[in-house]
Automatic annotation (TrEMBL):
Residues 18-59 form the FecR N-terminal domain. This is DUF4880 domain-containing protein. It holds the Pfam family DUF4880. InterPro entries: FecR, FecR_N, Ferrdict_sens_TM. It comes from Massilia atriviolacea. GO terms for molecular function: sigma factor antagonist activity.
């Protein structure tokens, strides 16, 4: 009897699907120890959605056992046993293998989860804790935050950048051929006018902060309505249908480009959500301390030190189940 995909009819959030793949790649990298394997098991047990994402990969692999699947991948997916290959599969190659298997599996589940697999295939991407800057053919610069991905498509008529996930900081260059520069997100398109700006892809919306020049926003489903133009110092979110009210641009939101996380009265839960983008595994926040406020500038090069600082300055304790499974909760009296 053919293996049945237990999660095929139940949607899984893109972020959870992405985590499942990251854990899988970590397991088969040849560097995973007992702590990593225990963290994977804890992640799977933490929520039924996690297990559905994991089981989908196992089901697809079971259907394709006849394909040339690297043995460490098969072991990691199906048996949850330590993979000890003679030559560990490089993580980039492993990611492509996983993406290929999932695409081969097809079905409704994958249709709902297209974003994670597009990330692995993007022209430029960053993993957890990575940041990079690329220079495009026209001289424009694009900085990618942790866990971000973009596709680049230059043609004779336009310069197009598609933000697949995460957030980017863009400084556009003048084009000799006067081609328009376009940044596409899931909700619409942006046309910068000689500018420096940031774009972040959220679930169901995009956010733009303009620091120099101006940016025209055209939501995907706005029809013939004129675009909304943001000037330097302005910020706005937009959905596929409309642009929200303009607010002041947040310069602190792009401190990551300088390797920093800057907070000014930020909720602890929101601060940890941002910090969690820069470290592997799960970083949780107990509801009892979620509304504590955090201020300061924190170097992202050492996320463990940031947690130590929180413990020293707030009434919280940092609870480590493993190195990859951390929660912040009220300090014991």
């Amino acid at each position: 009897m053919a293996a049945r995909d237990p999660g095929a009819s139940v949607p899984v959030r893109a972020a959870v699907a992405r985590q499942a793949v990251e854990w899988l790649v970590e397991l088969q990298s040849g560097e995973a120890g007992d702590a990593t394997r225990a963290a994977v098991q804890q992640w799977r047990a933490a929520h039924p959605e996690h297990e559905r994402a994991w089981q989908h990969i196992a089901a697809v692999n079971a259907r394709w056992r006849g394909a040339a699947v690297p043995s460490p991948l098969a072991h990691a997916v199906l048996l949850d046993t330590p993979a000890v290959p003679a030559r560990p599969l490089p993580r980039r190659a492993a990611a492509k293998t996983v993406a290929a298997l999932l695409c081969a599996g097809g079905g409704a589940w994958l249709a709902h989860q297209a974003t994670p697999w597009r990330e692995w295939r993007a022209d430029a991407r960053t993993g957890t804790g990575q940041r990079r800057t690329i220079v495009l053919a026209d001289g424009s610069q694009v900085s990618l935050n942790s866990g971000s991905a973009v596709d680049v498509r230059f043609s004779a008529g336009e310069r197009r950048l598609r933000l697949v996930s995460g957030d980017i900081l863009v400084s556009t260059a003048r084009d000799r051929a006067a081609r328009p520069f376009i940044v596409a997100t899931a909700e619409g398109e942006l046309r910068p006018l000689g500018t420096r700006f940031a774009v972040r892809q959220h679930a169901g919306s995009s956010r733009v902060d303009v620091f120099e020049g101006a940016v025209a926003i055209r939501p995907r489903d706005a029809g013939q309505a004129p675009p909304r133009v943001l000037q330097a110092g302005q910020q706005a979110r937009f959905s596929a249908a409309a642009v929200a009210d303009t607010r002041p641009a947040d310069g602190d939101s792009v401190a990551w480009a300088d390797g920093m996380l800057v907070a000014s009265g930020m909720r602890l839960a929101d601060f940890l959500a941002e910090l969690g983008r820069h470290r592997h595994g799960r970083l949780g926040c107990d509801a009892a301390v979620a509304d504590l406020r955090v201020s300061g500038s924190y170097p992202l090069a050492d996320t463990g030190r940031i947690l130590d600082t929180l413990r020293a300055t707030l009434p919280v304790e940092i609870h480590f189940i493993t190195r990859y499974w951390v929660s912040v909760r009220p300090a014991r009296r």
